[in-house]
Amino acid sequence: MPEIGETLRETRMRRRIDMTEVEAATKIRAKYLRALENEEWDLLPGPTFVKTFLRTYAEYLELDPRLLVEEYRQRFERPTTQDLTPFRPNRGGGRQRQRPRRPIGPFIVVGLGILIVCAALYLLGRTGDDPETDLTGNGTPTPTATATSEPPKATATPAKRKKKAAPTRVSLKLTATDRVYVCLVDATGKAVVNGEYLEKGASTKTFRSKSFRVNLGNSSVRMTYGGKRYPAANIGQPIGYELRPGKKPKRLKESVRTGLCAT
């Protein structure tokens, strides 16, 4: 199996992804990402962080994180102190010394005494609750008013709304408002529109992928993306965008834009 760092670096370079983009997307500092690619494990905070960063970076590059994490565990992770502690059998071969049993008689006596005291207190409390007595000794119960109250009405609780799952794929269609050069690359790095010119009024078919990168020769394009329409910004020169699920189009850096559909 290729080295862990080599796999990460080659995948990122093959997809033409800058390290600053990975840092912004994964929230992992660039120096830690470089340490992963160079397998400089001592520069990372610890094994737990190594596995967490490795899993996050692999998922961003659409690699299998389980394979990379398992490869790291087998090759680099050291066994814990508990794993290195040998089991110590009973070398004496004889019976283990039993602890002497404490007599339970005093505890039983104390328990019975507590029960008797509790019973006496309970009877005294019941006597104090008897109705008041007059001079002849006959009890006259004190009438008490009983308030009747209606049980509280059950209030209907609205049904919990199910939270919509975040979209994982992007649907994209480009329509030319004038003649324009188009280069469109999907999440796998495949150029689905490989440097072609769209004439005014012409449209591409609707493409679907986890993300897209597009390089436009000018702003004469309307992007139908995620059910909404976005016109390209008119900056008087070529422009590029990155399109991801649930997010607005993001301007590409010039170095990334010019690398798309490069001949």
From TrEMBL:
It comes from Solirubrobacter phytolaccae. PANTHER family: CYTOSKELETON PROTEIN RODZ, PTHR34475. The keyword Membrane applies. Residues 79-102, 129-166 are annotated as: Disordered. Residues 140-158 have a biased composition (Low complexity). This is Helix-turn-helix domain-containing protein. Residues 173-232 form the Cytoskeleton protein RodZ-like C-terminal domain. Pfam families: HTH_25, RodZ_C. Keywords: Membrane, Transmembrane, Transmembrane helix. One of its GO terms (molecular function) is DNA binding. The chain crosses the membrane at residues 104-124.
